[in-house]
Each structure stands twice: as structure tokens, then as C-alpha cells.
Fold each of these.
Amino acid sequence: MQFYEIADRLQGLKEHCVIATLLHVEGSSYLKEGAMLLFHQDGKTGMISAGCVESDLEERSRQVLLDGQPQFVVYNQKSDEDLLWGTGSGCSGMLYVLVERVDENLRGQLLDVRRSLEEGRTVLHRKECLSDGRRLIIKNFFNKEMKKETIIKNGLIKTNGEHMVFSYRFEPKRRLVIFGAGEDAKAVAKLASETGWSVTVCDWRSALCNHDEFPFADHLIVGFPSELFDKLALNSEDFAVIMSHNFQQDKEFLSLILKENLRYVGVLGPRNRTEGLLETKQIPAFLSSPIGLPIGSSGPHEIAVSILAELISVYRLEKRSEGSIL
């Protein structure tokens, strides 16, 4: 998640900086509402597009840093005549972007959002933009008491030319629990971490389940299946993958995990192996077996790609159907 990278950068900054926020998208774009780009003394952190508007935003950020006045800009990438932004960008939408200076108050608020996310809390950001005809007045509000099940659509929720209201739902990193610490689990853990997941690895072998073997894991839990579940505190938003390659351990992992109500459960290996783990040919519809999208993958890295592709598909497509586009 790019917000975590931006918060990490804000943590160490001693000077004022500027942040650009994608408020609204019409048509197609590389990123969606809520994307952020931070300009600071060491360069920039985050993204708004695939590179087609960043140069102009950087120029604007210098002016915003000097005079402190926010800027609202619309990039029209739909027009064939728009040679500056439209040609070769791969996008064909309109981007509505706000550029504002990060003062100590906003910096503290964003760092507080980061702490709330790490505590597992969802935060609603409400940004009000009011024009008095000469300048923009920006007010930022953050609600840390928001319930996870509340449906919020990211983006502009009100605009009349003078008054705009933008909302964005910050959510904690989605958690992936990997049962098994083999070589292929390393590839899954690394790719999951790089794509914004909080990764927990569980295994009964301490020689395999450690930070030297899994530097990308957020949490490591060593223990046999019956010992692990009390420590995990699984919930309905969690994703789980069973891939220890030990039939008896996988069988116990699966029998325990089926008692939980998880967002996603996948089992590595052919379908007949999963039937053996369950001792039935009736595999529940919610159980992904064989795990991953059918892309003809071979080897740990390609298998990791297929697994993460399936996890992302489940997460993103369900979110869109709920009305919250993240």
C-alpha cells in the first residue's frame, strides 16, 4: 500500500512537504480515487498515474510549497488533441487532483491514521474544499471510530463548483496467513508483502519459520496446528493458504481452519489430494482447490503469482460489488 510508504517518509521528514491526492476519476486511469503522491526534499513517494501527470504536479508542488495555496487541477486524457497528457499514457480518463502543503497538523493526522491502521482500525478521511473565488480553503477530518462494515464509496461525494467534499476509506492491510514454511511459501510471502498484504507464516519447524528465512513476513508463529489457532485470532476478513506439503499437518490445519469463518481458504496441490485431506470428494464451494488462477504456472515464483492473482481477484472484485472501491 502506497500510503504506508508515504507515512514512513513523513515520519522522518523535518521540513514542510506537499501532497497530491487523486480526488476523482472519469473514464479509465492507472490508479483510482485516494491515490497519493508526496513531494519532499529527497524526491517523491507514491503515485497518481503511470507517469503522465507527475512532472506537472511536481512543478505545481514547488509553487504550493512557496505560497502555501492549494491547487486543484484537472488532467483531461480523453482528448486525442491533448498531446501533453494524452499521447502514449495508456489512460483515457480525466483526473481531478488536489495539491496541498503538508503542515504539522496534517502530518500528525496522517501519522495517526497509520497508527490506527496498525491497530486494525478503519479510518474515514473527509476532505472539504471551499473556494472563495480567489483561493481554496482545505479542511481535513479523520474519523477513527468507523465500523468496518460501513459502505463508503471513495471519491468526490459532493461538488457544486465552489464546495467539494471528498471521502476516502483507509483500511488496515488485509491479512494473509500461510500455513507452511517451505520454499514455495517464501515466494508467496514475498509477493504478498510487496502487493500490500500483512503476512503471517505458521509452521511447527523453527528452523524454517524464522526471520532469516522469511524477512518479508510481519509475523511468524511456531507451533503444531492445535497450538497455533489460539495465537492467531482469525477473523472473517482474513485469507489463508495451506501449503506445508506434509499431509498429516495439512489435514489438521484444514480441519481446524474449516471451523473458522474466513474470507478465503486455499489449499495447495491437486484436487484429489484435498479430497484426501477432507476424506470426501465433496469439497466446499468456498474452498479453493487447486489454489490459484489457472495460468499454467510452474515453479514457486509462477505459482506465487497465480495464488496472489486469485487472492487479489477475490478481494478487489468483492469490494467493488459492495460499493467501496479501494
Note: The chain has a mean pLDDT of 88.
Amino acid sequence: MKLSVTRLFSADESGAAHVRTLAKLLVESVDLVTQMFGASPETGTELDAQLDNINAQASKSQATMLTALRSSYLTPLPREDLYLLGTWINRAIEAVSVTGTIIHATRQYRLPSRVGDVLEILTRQADLVLGATEQLTQADDLESTWMHLERLTHQAQRALATWRLADADELLARHYYRQQEVARSLESTFMTLREFSTQLGRILVRDS
């Protein structure tokens, strides 16, 4: 049986597909942690369990992605790029899951309304990450997504700073400490997504 040249040298999409799967799991995890704000303790317990489940799925998907990349000859992007993109998404999911655990453990379900600004930015970033995984071979679209991610990263830092400064004036020490744990965990998520955005920038610069 003869194999066509196209088939022999067509890109293996399996690794990229796992990166997209991780991005979808990130969107789901951000949605769940957003639902925790205003939830009852009972609902919070259920949401925390769902976050743990997504985190486990993400770890499994990353391992499968690594196996797929190791066995691929030709991929849409260099295998190292796909690995790093998937790894940063997986770490972001871990950070979101930790945020959920902190919220549940400290019962911080009634955070101030200004936290809504932070969560809105995180939701938009998760959607952009998913969009980026579908634009890996479309340089112009990917550059636009990168620019939006970078802009939102700066907005996130300002929103977090506003939240923290307001809390310092308004809360008793015990409540301040607990809310700061949530804020630090969300900041860790944003910093991980910043690394994902930086990797996108490297790809764009190298391939331009």
C-alpha cells in the first residue's frame, strides 16, 4: 500500500487538541470558582469537589499531551511550544482550584462587590486562552489575542491592588487575612496566565 506524501507529512493535531482540551477545562474551572462567590457552604462543598475533579482531568490531559507530543513527527507548532502552552494552562487550572479550596476552607463566600471586577477579568482571560489555542497557526488573530491578554493582565493587577487597599481600611485583622489569602491565590492565577501570554509572544516573534 502506498502512502501519499500529504499523509506522510501532514501535521499531527493530537498534541494541539490536548492543549485545547486544557483550555476548555480552564474555562470550566473559572466558571466554577466564580459560582463560589455568594454560594452557600453546601453548594461551596460541591463546587470545590468539581474543581478538584477538573484539576485531576487537567493533570491527566497534560500527561496524555506529553505522550502524544513525544510520538509526533510533525506538529502545527514546535512540540516544545505546545508543551509549554499546555503546561501553563494546566498550572493556571491548579491555581484556580487552589483558590476554590481557600474560599471553601475559610468560608469566604461573601467577598466585596469589587471582587466582581477581578473575576470578570479572569473570565475574559480564560476565554482568550481558549481562543488562542484555536488560532495557533493564524498569526494575525493570535497577535490580537496576545494583545488583549496583556492588556487584561495589567487591568487585573490594578483591580487586585484596589481590592487589597480597600480591605486594609475596612476589615478586622482575621477577615483581612482570609481575604488576602484569596487575593494572593487569584494573583497567582493571573501570573500564570501571564506566562502563557509571554509564551504566545515568543511564538509570534520567532515565527514573524
Note: Residues 14-207 form a domain with the Methane Monooxygenase Hydroxylase; Chain G, domain 1 fold (CATH 1.20.58.220).
Amino acid sequence: MKRGFISLALASLLMALPASAQETRTLRLGMQGTAGDPQFQGVTEAARIIEEKSGGRLKLEIFPNSQLGTFTEMMEQVTLGELDFTLNPFGGMDAWVPRAVVASTAYVVGDFDHLQKIIASDWGQGIVEEMRAEHNWRTVDSWYFGTRHTTANKPIETPADFAGMKLRVPNSAPLLTWAKAMEASPTPVAFAEVYLALQTNQVDGQENPLPIIDAMKFTEVQTHVSLTGHLVQDQLILMSEDTWNALEPADQQIVIEAFKAGGTVNNKLVTKKEASLVSAFRERGITVVEPDKAAFQEAMKPVYADLDKQFSAGTVQSLLDLR
């Protein structure tokens, strides 16, 4: 009988507690990045803070290595509310909001701080709001992913140095446009086959962020790294608007603070890695070239003019002026 009274008392106590004190909600994040990379370390820090600040009511489960599908599939899952978070570049939102392509056009963005100003501008916030209203994607934060540079067996100091080069670029419209504006010959090669293509002179050069150039050992078959810095990329932390609306305001604030802290971890790791690689390449005997970017930007002006015609006169210059 006594045991029965205790059970009834516990049941009554649980019923009296608010639902938030009884339940643990697990949020799910899908990403392309691999376990251990800066983005993964950043979201791991965000997960720690979410659990800590919510007193264990909220948890964040991370699915790296495209476990939940391609980035397009994960974006769709976030739209439908089947996935709570994913990552995708601001400039890469052009498949859904076409004018976002301006932010992934070579030499429009000067550095990561400049990109943050672009996102915070009326132009950038218009894109952010369209993403939320039309696709159910709430932008929580923007993290630094890296700046793309060029490797070759010669220095790249001016646009003329690109002329006629067989240059491997991804099948990305802005990068193909950049290569053509430099009068290079963009050559399609699967990412996994780039090393062999460089080794056998199928292509003369390629472009990627420095950590990828290092990880893929491209400097084993290329003598020069030219810091062309043609494209600065971020990773937006995108959240399902359905998930956001289902959270209490206090928990929404926890999510924002957690991903800001995770972004700080990520940004420091990426920036430190890029700086250390420049020194490391030189120590290995690789020639690191630091060209004047003004000439490259000048060569992009016809592309900028086309973008202004497509979207709105003065668009590109208005973003350049935010530097």
C-alpha cells in the first residue's frame, strides 16, 4: 500500500511539472563536412552549449559526411521540417534565390568581414528573408569556410598568366565564369581525380581553399601556390523555421548563442590553418605568390556589367562599396 501511495505521489508530481522540464528534445543537424574539420568542431561546440544552457532539455545530434544525403536533399529536409539544421554557403543560395550569385562571383567579396557586411546589408537581408519566407530556412549564423586560391607550375601574377591554361574548376557557374574571364580554359575533372590530372598534365592548374590544397597533396605535383583569393566562402547555419517556431523564446536565444560560440571556434581554426599553411608551403620549397588582385578584379568588370543588367543597375558596385 505504501508503495502505491509513493507511485501516485510521483505521478502527481510529474503531471504538475511543465512539459519542458519533463521532456528532452533532440535537434538534428546534417552536414557535408567530415568529423574533425573546423565546421564539425564548431557544431560540436554548439551542441555542448545547447545541452548545457538548456539544462539537458535540448540536445543537438550531428550527422557529418553527408549521412543524410546531398546538400540539396538536406536543404529540402529542412524545408519540410524533417531536419532541423544544415549548412550551405550564402553565395550558393542562387539555386533558390538567383541574385545571391553576385556574392559568389569572383572578387565581389574581399574577405570574410566584407561578406558579413554584405549579408547584413539591405540587399543581403532581402535574400535572407526570401529564404525564410519562401523556403522555410532561417539563417542563424554565417561561418568562415575559406578563400579559394590557385596552384600551377608557374606563378600567377596577372590575368595574362591564366591565358590558355587548362584550369580545373568545379562545375559551378560563377567559377566557370571567372575562369573564362581570366581567359583560361576551364576543364572538367572529378574532384577525386584532380591529383592525377595535375600529375599527367591533363590540366595545368586548379583552385581550392588552402586546407584542401594541402589535404589533397596538390603541392606534390604543383610548384606554385598563387594567392589569387578569387572567392571567399562561408557556411550559413540554416534552421527550419518550423523548428524555430516550436521553441520557446528562451530556447531560441540559447540556439543563437550556441551557434555564435560555435562560429567563433570554427573561424579561429580556419583562419589559423590558412595562415600556417602559407608558411608550411614555403618551408616545403613551394613558391607562394601574392599577386595584386586589382588587375584580376578589372578583368571581371564585363561580368559585373552582365550581373547589373540581370538584377539591377549598380548592384555589384553597391556591394563593393561595403568593403
Note: Strands lie at 25-30, 58-63, 85-88, 137-152, 166-168, 185-187, 205-209, 224-240, 287-289.
Amino acid sequence: MTKNFYEVHDVLETYKNAVQEKDEEKLLSLYASDIHIYDCWGSWESKGIQSWQANVSEWFNGLRKNDVRLEVAFTDVVIETVSTLAFVHCAVSYTGYQQQTAVKLQQTINRFTYGLRKTQDSWEIVHEHSSLPIDFETGKGMFDLK
């Protein structure tokens, strides 16, 4: 499952493609075995690749069950790197379409921060944090702001 990602941008492009293809193995190949994730969806926190794999499986199975094609777009990407560490922050848009009719179902925009480390000439995600602004009147996350 290990792949070589020579540039941090390659990691983001592979993430986008893996989600759009619902390819669990490809997506998980981006992450370190000791990944630590704070998420806006489902499980609040994932520690370790097995925990994250369970969330990814549930996510992709739900998309398949509901016949949803999900498109991913990264915007406002900022990448800072030093020899073996990288820091990324960006906005990530997820747009769901009904597979058969191409009707747009929903779009959400999350804020993401990634921490990556370089091991044996390849980048891997060791920390991921997604967040949303909160509407103080309702206490709910606002998924469509930018």
C-alpha cells in the first residue's frame, strides 16, 4: 500500500482522486500508520490508521449506497516545507452529485490543516484537522461559507 509522494502537491492531488474514485486503499496510502485526525464528520477523532480506515470505509460505503459521485476541490492552498516536515492549510470543497442523473445534491466547504512528514523520500500525512465556523445562534457548523 505504500506509495511514493515526492511533492506535497502530489498528496493533495491523490487525495482528490481517491475520494472521487472512492478508492479506500489509495486514500489510506497517504496517511502514516500513527495518523491523528480531528474531523467535522462522524467520529470526532481518529488515532491510528485502523481507526481512520473504519471512518473511510463507512464514508465510501455510504456514497456507494446512495449512488453519489463526490467531487473534491482544494482552494486557497498554502504549503510550507522544510526538509522533513510540511504544513498545509486550505479550503476543501466537497460537491455531491447523483451518479445517474448528475443532479447536484449538496456542497460543503471545510477548512483543513495537514501536517506531513517526509520518510524515505516520500511525504505522508501525520496529522489532519478539519474545521467549520460555528453559527453562535444555532450552535451548528456552517458548511457553505468561504
Note: The chain has a mean pLDDT of 90.
